[in-house]
Amino acid sequence: MTNGIVTFAKYNQEANRKILELLNKLSNEEREKERGSYYRSLSGLVRHIGGGSLFFAGLFRGALGSAPAAKPLAALEKIDFPSDTLSEAQWNKTAADIETVDQGLVNFAGALNDAGLTAPVKLDWYGGDPADVPLFFMFYQLTVHNTHHRGQVSQILDELKIDNDYSAINVAFR
Fold first, then answer.
1. Could you tell me if 55 and 74 are in contact, meaning their C-beta atoms sit under 8 angstroms apart?
2. How far is CA 25 from CA 37, 50, 52, 81, 106, in A?
3. Which of 15, 36, 122, 158 lies in the 20 to 30 Å Cα band around 134?
4. CB 174 within 8 A of CB 10
5. pLDDT of residue 2
6. Rounded to 5 degrees, what angle do the CA atoms 84, 140, 150 make?
7. Under 8 Å CB-to-CB from 174, ≥6 apart: which residues?
8. Contact at 8 Å (CB) between 76 and 62?
9. DSSP alpha helix (H) spans, the chain
10. Which pLDDT score is estimated for 1?
11. Domains of the chain, residue spans
12. Could you read off the pLDDT of 22-35 as tens digits, one per residue?
């Protein structure tokens, strides 16, 4: 099962890298422009992806406490994604922070063992039923979350007539 989690972590890393490469080619004005999405802009969507990844990393760290596998997540606690319109310099830092988060999650996934994969992640989302789910399930949810929002980015890029086949199945990251 750890191979599956590592594969998902590497997939997220590669897909985010491709999105960032595409968005880095746009002007800051184009990235920050209101696009009608819940997160307003392309930048807002990407910041939400990064913030969501940090949220999940916090859940994982909470489930594992001081277990060695949680060590790669400790450095991510210092990262914070801004919520307002970004300058070019802030965008560059945000993109670098997303790469750091993604690498931290890859390192974390690679350090997991069977006990870590099944560690209970406490939730308050479902009114206490269930009160927790296995960590591997939440890692899948992280992947679904990121893929969902990258799909929103893709739809906006489609409207802008920007080729963005970042989601094609690519086995090079394995």
1. no
2. 21, 19, 24, 21, 26
3. 15
4. yes
5. 77
6. 40
7. 7, 10
8. no
9. 2-24, 28-32, 42-64, 71-74, 88-111, 114-117, 135-159
10. 64
11. 2-159
12. 999 999 999 999 99
CA distance 174 to 57: 21
Q: Which CATH superfamily is 2-159 part of?
A: dinb family like domain (1.20.120.450)
CB 12 within 8 A of CB 142: yes
- Whether residue 102 contacts residue 52, with contact meaning beta carbons closer than 8 Å, is answered with no
* Cα Rg of the chain, angstroms: 16
Q: What is the pLDDT of residue 164?
A: 86
Q: In whole angstroms, what is the distance from residue 116 CA to residue 114 CA?
A: 5
Give the pLDDT of residue 80: 93
Closest CA to 123 of 135, 113, 111, 112: 135
Q: How many residues does the chain have?
A: 174
Evaluate whether 5 touches 108 at the Cβ level (below 8 Å). no
